[in-house]
Amino acid sequence: MAPVSLRQIRKSYHELSVIHGIDLEIADGEFIVFVGPSGCGKSTLLRMIAGLEEITGGDLTIDGVRANDQSPVERGVAMVFQSYALYPHMTVRDNMAFGLKMAKADRTLIAQRVAEAARILHLERYLDRRPSALSGGQRQRVAIGRAIVRHPKVFLFDEPLSNLDAALRVNTRLEIARLHRDLGNTMIYVTHDQVEAMTLADRIVVLNGGRVEQVGTPAELYERPANRFVASFIGSPAMSFLPAQIAALDGGRLTLALADGRPIPTHHRASEATRLGDPVTIGLRPEHLAPDGPGSAALPVEIQDIEYHGDRRFLYASAPGANGLTMAIPGGRPFQVGDRFDARFDPTALHVFDGAGVALPV
Amino acid sequence: MTDPSHPPQPTAAGGRSASPGITTTGTTTSRRANRRTVALMLTPALLLLALFLVLPFLLSIGLSVTNYNLLNRRAVTLFVGLANYASILEDERFWQAAWNTARFALVTVPVQSALALLLAVLVNSGLPGRNLFRGVYFLPTVLSMAVVSVIWAGLLRAPQGVLNALVGTLSGGVLGPYDWLGDETLAMPTIIVLSVWQGVGFQMVIYLAGLQSINAELYEAARIDGASRFQQFLHITLPSLRNTHVFVVLATTVLAFKLFGQVDVLTQGGPLDSTNTLVRYLFNSGFREHRVGFASAASVLFFLLVLGITLVQRALVREDREI
């Protein structure tokens, strides 16, 4: 168990800079998830913490000790790989024991730790099998077991669920959450799947282009995204965006005008740079826009697609100046593609982003 | 067994509703067409194999029980039973050649395989100039053995060859000169060194392919587990190359048993038969002494010997198909 601290961490390959100075304080026992699109640098950052990639600049501290030049073992980290990376010629038992054998640990200690990990992960029956005789989910559990037996200070997970099918992914996700509750270690987890990030994380770090877009709890990120990138990345289905203009600044509160001139009074305040007439973007979560909701604002829409999801349906609609607006509605009234009506929303629920995509304060 | 190139037959309900007759006929027709394509594609290779491999081998089995002689064509060729085999097994020169060949293989196979692995690991690492070295190590393999032998004959010349000059200089005149190919105790070791040098590039390339197919994440996992470079080699590289080891050892063994060219050019089997080999023995019997029946019997024995060794090796080190 250990806190991890990143100060101005940078990575470049020759001239090409891929991580541009990241600051992050991870508390002891915290479950942190790095999330972002492909190529955002999340895996590279994790590998730098692991000691698999050299750190070009900045300071990495694990448990109060500068770790930049330490080996993975000295750092006390264990890692679970996307491809499992199990040693194919070794049994499950030997795979899990390998790290301790390398550390020349006592035989009885090794046996005890392996038995403990096997019990936690329900792998007792498979200890003498080779990885090739295991299913994907079992292999992933062995990979996690290999990390557990070393009693590391920090667990690192690199997209550990990507190779599993949907049902197994949910199970393994719950198992990892349980593991974190039971062990209480610091865990750093990389994924491109925002559902994994939302469900597992104490705090999420949203990365984009080698920079941190926002750090916060899942609720903070969902309810108060710092910018349009975070707003569109977190939440499924994604937030809908509508173009608008600043129509009035009434006592610090903004009134926006939609593409058809319709005024929308908001809670949001102007930032210093905001000027009358500036273009802005309105963001609406699917649950905040409804055909006959309680909201005071109305938006004329036309249904383009309907998706049935059992407990609810998603309506995909167009509005003046915008396409792909999403509404999440419970069963009820039947809709058809081509239906036109005024969708309603509560102006206090919407998000407003300025021309640069930065969220305006409430 | 199901044919992977065809979708499985439609099952009960789904299949029936969609006109079962047409489906079945279609599958049978396409299966027949498929079989014809397979046969057509295999025929040229099978014909060549039959003509130049199977037929000569069957002929040599037939000839091995006759006294067929190339020079004495007028003489009637007679069936002699196992007489050729008996006289081969009684021939001291055969056993000498067999022992020399075995000696050569026993040293060459482990040394050449280990050296090939070492070179492959070196040229697979991030060392500068590794592409140049890949080419340099492989170069002797593409040269004809006759050419290699002639070049080495110059280097090994006694007493004033390059190698003797080198040994003399390095030892300050204490050692040498040696008659590398004319000395009974030195001739075979010299042939071994030359052969390893010439052949190692081939095994290196096979090992290189094996090394490059190992999942790089295994090394990363091992680094996280605290394995040193040597421990990674021991616990990841060596076991991951199991199938490559099996192939390299088998191929090198077969190549070692075929030892002929360098011996024939450099020592002609001498001195005192100390470098004579099985292939040279049967070549001499057949094409220099023209005793084709006798040589055929020797070649059948040679085939059985190599087959036996290969089978034993395969039984000892099975390929691991699980991985």
Report what the structure shows.
The complex is a heterodimer of chains A (362) and B (323). Chain A has nine helices and 20 strands. With 362 residues, chain A is an alpha+beta fold. Chain A has two domains: 4-233, Rossmann fold (3-Layer(aba) Sandwich), CATH 3.40.50.300; 240-353, OB fold (Dihydrolipoamide Acetyltransferase, E2P) (Beta Barrel), CATH 2.40.50. In chain A, strands 6-7-8-3-9-10 form a six-stranded mixed β-sheet, sandwiched between helices. In chain A, strands 13-12-11-14-20 form a five-stranded antiparallel β-sheet. In chain A, strands 15-19-16-17-18 form a five-stranded antiparallel β-sheet, with no helix packed on it. In chain A, strand 7 (154-158), helix 6 and strand 8 (186-191) form a beta-alpha-beta unit. In chain A, helix 3 (92-102) crosses helix 4, helix 3 (92-102) runs parallel beside helix 5 (136-148) and helix 4 (107-120) crosses helix 5. Chain A starts with a strand and ends in a 9-residue tail after the last strand. The mean pLDDT of chain A is 90. By secondary structure, chain B is mostly helical. Chain B folds into two domains: 14-63; 83-316, MetI-like (MetI-like fold). Chain B contains 14 helices and no strands. At the A-B interface, strand 6 and helix 3 of A face helix 9 and helix 10 of B.
Give the arrangement of secondary structure elements:
The complex is a heterodimer of chains A (362) and B (323).
Chain A: E1 4-13, E2 16-26, E3 31-35, H1 42-50, E4 57-62, E5 65-66, H2 72-75, E6 77-80, H3 92-102, H4 107-120, H5 136-148, E7 154-158, H6 166-183, E8 186-191, H7 194-200, E9 203-208, E10 211-216, H8 218-223, H9 228-233, E11 240-250, E12 253-258, E13 263-269, E14 279-284, E15 289-290, E16 297-308, E17 312-319, E18 322-330, E19 340-345, E20 351-353
Chain B: H1 12-17, H2 20-63, H3 83-90, H4 92-124, H5 130-142, H6 145-156, H7 162-170, H8 184-212, H9 216-224, H10 229-240, H11 242-257, H12 261-266, H13 278-288, H14 292-316
